[in-house]
Recover the amino acids of this structure.
């Protein structure tokens, strides 16, 4: 019996969200008395045996030039074959962009019950129950999985990485790989900046900034903090900022350690995407802004005065001023 | 060319979230129901735009739900689309929804199936991908742009830290999010036309239950905001550094 963890990577590096998934899968394996193993498709520059540091005993490494393109259909068939050959009972993904496409497909293929967006270890004393966010972060649900095989996609930033020392055995398996139907014709990565869903700190601004030309102070604060940028929906709708920065109920949902909201009123639909943040700081000139009710720290003041001062103060603490 | 758009019914985005029956059921009293925003604003509107560009396209809408879904299905028809199908059952989870849609879609042979990225109530984010697996079709998730060129689609999708543009032959299942289209409001002509469009009710097929929502709870209330004077920004940074330990 094994717990199989899908290890996602980009630019040759294992994703942090996959390290979280590895740590989570290893804990589940301990809990149910199973072995934890990883599966990785394609080429990485990471030294694979070192993935044993996360507690897995084996990494199934599937290499084939056809895997250079991420095609959910062909990837699913590969992962399902690995799961079958290794008798995996629980299959773990990160609930990131790749995991959202793969996990439900693998679940169907394996006839397994699926829980997306898990936020805690399963409760196994009475059935197999997984806690997840529902109603866009406004509530939690317990989902009981009734099937013998289970697939779980773990929310990003919901489980901390635990690293020790260990050596994983790298195993290659005989797997059929189908030619992808999808052809990649272009990529556009936001170079040098932190990915929004994985970021530990996010600096976000709203209509209070008055116009796109005023984003310099926001960008300065974000780069000082090593943070990703986000914005409210009207800001993206007005094309002040790209739509992939739009957070909220109808945008991206995030759960960073620190979320700084500047000139955002805190409408219920905005909160739905950010209320899982561990610490929320609100800067707004209106003391009645609803966001203050959801905040841990706040400053009532004009963003154009407060934000540059804040950037300076952060630089001082970080010793870069 | 036939397009299927999957439409779900969700509570209004401002609905009060509460639970009844010993925290096992969502409290529906007084809740306004809407078309799940991703399905309406992006999936459906993009399908309508494609039909506007090529009137030979047929659009079917499908919902898995009981008769309470009819008002949101009519609203979707008022935006556009030729006919709607409702599979007459309250789905238990994303799997059972996908199963019912797949059973129907298999007989019809659609060239293109659109879903939203996720429902804003149970946040499964799974129906589209599951459907593609059941129909053994390619799947492109989290699309932010969709173009049709004959028998191929050019789709931009979200990847970790950016976007990627792919080309894929039809038929394909695509989950849509912001960027794919701009939300619209139904006009009077659409609302009138929707009344006479067919809404076909089909009975569900038997399936197993894989997962059950066994209980709900609400997050603990926040302790309250700690306000810092705008004259004393250093104090905020000190608190974030020493007390919250996030800087
Ligand atoms: C179905 C639906 C879905 C939605 N989904 C989303 C979503 O996913 N994400 C989202 O963000 N919104 C969403 N919305 C919109 C949401 O309801 C709000 O309209 C939106 O979040 C408001 O954006 P804002 O706070 O930037 O702007 P505003 O509400 O205009 O607020 C601007 C704020 O800036 C403050 N301000 C002004 N000047 C300054 C200054 N100089 N310094 C400091 N503060 C200043 C003001 O006091 C005010 O609080 C949705 C709405 C609907 C109906
Ligand atoms: N009951 C339903 N009927 C029809 N389509 C649905 C239903 N539930 C979900 N969908 C579609 O599947 C998408 C993802 O749903 P989910 O996996 O439940 O988050 C939604 O955006 C809809 O397009």
């Amino acid at each position: 019996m094994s717990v199989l963890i899908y290890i996602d990577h980009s630019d040759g590096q294992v994703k942090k969200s996959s390290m979280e998934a590895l740590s989570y899968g290893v804990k589940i394996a301990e809990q149910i008395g199973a072995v934890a193993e990883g599966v990785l498709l394609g080429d990485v520059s990471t030294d694979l045996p070192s993935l044993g540091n996360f507690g897995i005993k084996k990494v199934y490494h599937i290499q084939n030039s056809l895997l250079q393109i991420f095609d959910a259909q062909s990837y699913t068939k590969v992962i399902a074959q690995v799961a079958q050959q290794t008798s995996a009972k629980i299959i773990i993904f990160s609930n990131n962009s790749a995991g959202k496409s793969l996990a439900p497909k693998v679940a169907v293929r394996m006839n397994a019950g699926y829980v997306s967006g898990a936020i805690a270890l399963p409760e196994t004393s009475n059935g197999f129950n997984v806690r997840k966010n529902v109603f866009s972060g406004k509530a939690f649900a317990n989902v009981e999985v009734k099937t013998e095989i289970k697939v779980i996609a773990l929310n990003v930033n919901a489980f901390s990485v635990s690293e020790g020392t260990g050596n994983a055995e790298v195993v290659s398996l005989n797997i059929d790989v189908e030619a992808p139907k999808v052809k990649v014709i272009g990529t556009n990565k936001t170079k040098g900046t932190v990915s929004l869903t994985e970021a530990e700190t996010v600096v976000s601004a709203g209509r209070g900034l008055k116009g796109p030309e005023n984003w310099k102070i926001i960008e300065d604060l974000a780069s000082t903090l090593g943070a990703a940028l986000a914005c409210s929906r009207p800001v993206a709708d007005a094309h002040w900022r790209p739509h992939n920065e739009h957070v909220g109920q109808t945008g991206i949902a995030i759960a960073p350690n620190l979320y700084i909201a500047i000139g955002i009123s805190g409408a219920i639909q905005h909160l739905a995407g950010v209320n899982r943040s561990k610490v929320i700081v609100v800067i707004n000139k209106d003391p009645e802004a609803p966001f203050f009710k959801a905040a841990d720290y706040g400053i009532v003041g004009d963003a154009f005065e407060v934000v540059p001062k804040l950037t300076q103060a952060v630089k001082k603490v970080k010793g870069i001023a | 060319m036939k397009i299927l758009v999957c439409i779900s019914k969700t509570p209004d985005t401002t609905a009060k979230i509460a639970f009844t029956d010993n925290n096992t059921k969502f409290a529906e009293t007084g809740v306004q129901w809407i078309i799940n925003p991703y399905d309406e604003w992006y999936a459906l509107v993009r399908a309508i735009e494609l039909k506007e560009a090529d009137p030979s396209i047929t659009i079917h809408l499908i919902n898995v739900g009981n008769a309470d879904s009819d008002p949101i299905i009519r609203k979707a028809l008022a935006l556009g689309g030729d006919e709607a199908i409702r599979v007459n059952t309250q789905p238990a989870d994303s799997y059972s929804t996908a199963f019912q849609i797949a059973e129907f879609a298999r007989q019809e042979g659609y060239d293109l199936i659109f879903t939203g990225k996720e429902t804003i109530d149970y946040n499964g984010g799974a129906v589209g991908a599951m459907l593609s697996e059941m129909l053994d079709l390619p799947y492109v998730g989290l699309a932010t742009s969709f173009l049709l060129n004959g028998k191929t689609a050019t789709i931009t999708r979200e990847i970790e830290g950016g976007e990627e543009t792919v080309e894929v032959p039809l038929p394909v299942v695509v989950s849509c999010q912001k960027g794919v289209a701009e939300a619209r409001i139904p006009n009077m002509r659409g609302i009138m036309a929707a009344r006479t469009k067919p809404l076909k009710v089909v009975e569900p097929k038997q399936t197993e239950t894989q997962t059950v929502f066994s209980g709900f709870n609400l997050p603990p209330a926040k302790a309250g905001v700690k306000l810092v004077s705008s004259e004393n920004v250093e104090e905020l940074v000190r608190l974030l550094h020493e007390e919250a330990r996030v800087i």
About this structure: Chain A has two domains: 2-171, 201-318. Residues 201-318 of chain A form a domain with the Rossmann fold fold (CATH 3.40.50.1220).
